[in-house]
Amino acid sequence: MKSEFKKISIIGLGLIGTSILHAINAKQKEGVTTFAYDVNSKHREIVSEMKIATFVCDEIHDAIKHADLVVLAVPVGSMKLVADSIKSSLKKGAIVTDTGSTKNSVIKDVNPYMPTSIDFIPSHPLAGTEYSGPKSGFGSLFENRYWLIISDQETDQTKKLAKFFENLGSIVETVSAEYHDKILAITSHLPHLIAYTIVGTASDLEADLKNDVIKFSASGFRDFTRIAASDPIMWRDVFLNNSEAVLEMLQRFNEDLSDLQKAIRKKQGQKLHSFFSRTRSIRKKIIEAGQI
Predict the structure, then answer these.
(1) For 125-149, how does the pLDDT look when each residue is reduced to its tens digit (9 = 90+)?
(2) Spans of all domains in the chain
């Protein structure tokens, strides 16, 4: 399968960045030259050894100066610094996109540094695992997963970018930055915050009880520990940069939790059953949509 872009630069060689490189090699390698860069020299060495990029560059300038497409796969807290670093080296007519989990903050941090001769089109693949680093990437990560493009209108550039993402295996939709941040606050950011809290509470238990929590972990707790094992730098930046939407959803969650607390205290079995039945149906819909 031919790529929409002939020269592609991947900035950031963690799970998402290396998975993009794997997917390009598996699905649209013909005629494509890839340039890879990470501020961490060990990550560059690992990717060089993996041979998943045509060129692994020691300087960010060398990684982007020829690129038709530049993908910023770095933590959202680093976007501003990276945008400032690449602004003078971007090729005229290039498209720049990102993979960050917050969009209003990324637009605010990146847009001021983008030359008028390039198109900055924010995006976000709704795909990931609890693992991080260059060895965690794999080519099928984006298969049947949504990749959201952030734009108020469809253009030739957004169509071209969408086709590239589709060729990686993704389902592409276009949404606004405001809608993205609110939806991700409830579907991704809040679940991670809850997981970090539950596992943190278990970690604070007295030694004997904590040891038995680990020893007798049920599947529900194990699921929370998987989520709570996610990259702490990435998630610190997500919460700091999508705080308004996260706090709004956290308020709603606390209100629902308070209602459940009252129902348990007052032995309101029918209310608990109705609530659990309603939430169970959401799980079924997610399975039917193929997003498991």
Answers:
(1) 999 999 999 999 999 999 999 999 9
(2) 7-175, 180-288
The per-residue DSSP string of 193-208 comes to: HHHHHHHHHHHTS-HH
Q: What is the pLDDT of residues 171-205, one digit of tens each?
A: 999 999 999 999 999 999 999 999 999 999 988 88
Domain 180-288, CATH class in plain words:
mainly alpha
Nearest to 49 by CA among 8, 20, 18: 18
The secondary structure element, H or E, covering residue 63 is: helix 60-64
Q: How far is residue 4's CA from residue 66's CA, in Å, rounded to a whole number?
A: 15
Beta-carbon contacts of residue 79 (< 8 Å; ≥ 6 apart): 72, 98, 100, 105, 106, 109, 110
Judge whether 155 and 177 are in contact, CB under 8 Å.
no
- End-to-end Cα distance, the chain: 26
Q: What is the pLDDT of residues 254-268, one digit of tens each?
A: 999 999 999 999 999
pTM of the model: 0.90
Of 34, 33, 1, 5, nearest to 17 (Cα)?
A: 34
Domain 7-175 CATH assignment equals 3.30.300.30: no
pLDDT digits (tens, 9 = 90+) for 81-127: 999 999 999 999 999 999 999 999 999 999 999 999 999 999 999 99
